[in-house]
Amino acid sequence: MVAALGGNALLLRNEEAGADVQRRHAAVAARSIAKLAAGNDLVVTHGNGPQVGLLALQSAADPSVLPLPLDVLDAETEGLIGYLLEQELTNALPGRSVATLLTQVVVDLDDAAFTNPTKPIGPVYDAATARRIAADRGWAMARDGDALRRVVPSPVPRDIVEIGTIRLLLAAGVIVVCVGGGGIPVVVDAEGALRGVEAVIDKDLASGLLAELLAADALLILTDVDGVQRDFGTPGARRIPSASIAELRAMQFAPGSMRPKIAAACAFVERTGGLAGIGRLDEATEVLAGVAGTLVANAAAAP
Description:
Helix content is 37%, strand content 22%. It has 303 residues and is of the alpha/beta class. It has a domain of 158 residues: Acetylglutamate kinase-like (Carbamate kinase, 3-Layer(aba) Sandwich).
């Protein structure tokens, strides 16, 4: 199974972005998903929205040094978060081998996302601060709740370069942490060579592609909310325990948060017939059992 951990669940909104804070969240995540590892091949992916945005701020802080491009920052977050998860999974599962794999994900350079950035990264800002940063650095900003946040291109993932390596590790019984932050975005040039591009791939869509390529039985998208909600963000919000693909696709969801989760879950179920669930990071087994979160079914059968 593939367990996709949200970047916001590893570093909460407005939370101090220190290593100790992220390690504490990684330990909670590891204890939760460790319960899934018994008798299962397990692949763990993770988001990087808060982390890659903070690294971009750090990289741009020194005017004497050229800022690092997003593909390099994506690789840095794969190492940063992968290290924490790998260590905590090893602590939670003594005797099981765990490996973090830097993963390149192929996108199309003519993807419309490159001219329409929508992926939120980094911290949130008030309007005045957002205007100043956008003017200073040429960054695009968009509303995120009551605040503003940087947005970057988020092209559709098309293929995973290291998929063969991931299969080899799984065949050897290794728990694999990979496709971190949606993977490092790369394109294939006219000579067939790979090169990085300025983007952050959506973690949920990349995790869905990974689960499909691995013929996984289950895709769990674990985040900081208790599942798909009707009337999200209002006093009347309520969790949807289960829903068909058709029902979910008929509903409206925020493009930078729940919409890609719904798209990934629906596409995985539709293409493979497997099980998809969306729920809280600390309730992984409960989501899988259908007693928490939201389970996604095809049109023919409810879970």
